C-alpha cells in the first residue's frame, strides 16, 4: 500500500530536524549505524544528507548552509547553521502567535481549550514585554450570546431561542438540543436538534435574538447526525429550485459569493447565471436587492413574483400620503413622489420580467 505523500513528507521533515542534533552528538558515526538507529535505509539516509546540504540560514551562501565532512562511510557535521541553539521569537513572531492562539481560544467548537490557554500562557510568559501591547481578539457578533451557546453545549442543556430565518424572512421560537459549536466562514453557529423541525439544524449565532437556558438536559435522539460542513453551510441539491438570472458587470460578485451551477457569457457585459436557492421567496428578495442590473430568465413564477412586488412598490409611490388632521384625504397640492425613487421602482419592476 502506497503511503500518502503528505504523510511521507511529514515523516522526512521530522527525521531531518532530528538528524542534525543526532549527528552532532556522534561525530564520525558510520552511515550504516546511523541508518539503523533512525530506522531508514542507507540510501535514504544519504539522500537526507544531500538535502541537508542545501538547508540553512537566509543568505544561503558559504557559512549559512549546513555543512558536513565524509571520511569513507563515516559522516561528521562541521557546521549546524545554529540549529542547536534554542528558538528565539522576534517581537512580530511572538505577537502573531499570541493573536492566533487568542483567536483559537475564542473559536466555538474548539476542543481542549485548556491546552490552548496553557500554550498561550507559556508564550506570553516567555515573550515578556514583546507582547505587552494591548491586543483584543473578539469574534464578530455578540460575544455574550456565543458564550451562552457554548456554555449550553458544554453543560448539555436544552435551550429556547428566538431565531430569525433569513430564507423565509420570519422570526420563530424554537426549543433546541445543542450538539456542538462551530465556526464556518468567519461566523459562529450552533448545531442542534430542533424539536420544531424534528431534524438537525444550524443556527447562526448573530441571528438568535433571545436565548433561555431550560431547566432540563439536552435530549438528542439517535438519528441526530451532525452535518458534513467541509463544503460550506449551504450545499445545493438537485431537489432545490433552480433559478437563472441575466446579470451585468456590477452583479458578477454573486458568482463568487454563491455556489453557481452554470455561468455563461451573454451579450456584451452580461452573464447568464444559474444557481440553486432554498425557496423562491428568498430568491424574490435576492433579485429585488440586486436592482435593475439583474433580470429573471427562469422560472416564470419567480419573474412574476418579482414583477408584482416591484409594481406594488411603484404603486405605493403613486399614492399621496394622507395629511394629518385632514380626515385621511390628501389635498390637491400634495407633493409628487420623488422622481428618482419612482424611476428606480419602475426599473426594478422591469428587471423582474422574464426574458422572451
TrEMBL record:
Question: InterPro entries in the record, alphabetically?
Answer: CBASS_pafABC_assoc_protein, PafC-like, PafC_HTH, WCX_dom, WYL_dom
User: Which residues does the UniProt record annotate as the domain WYL?
Assistant: 146-212
Note the PROSITE patterns from the entry: WYL
List residues of the WCX domain.
244-314
Query: Which organism was this protein described from?
Result: Micromonospora profundi
Superkingdom to which the source organism belongs:
Bacteria
Q: What is this protein called?
A: YafY family protein
> Region Disordered: start and end of each range?
324-356
Q: Which residues form the PafC HTH domain?
A: 11-124
Where composition is biased (Low complexity), the residues are 334-343
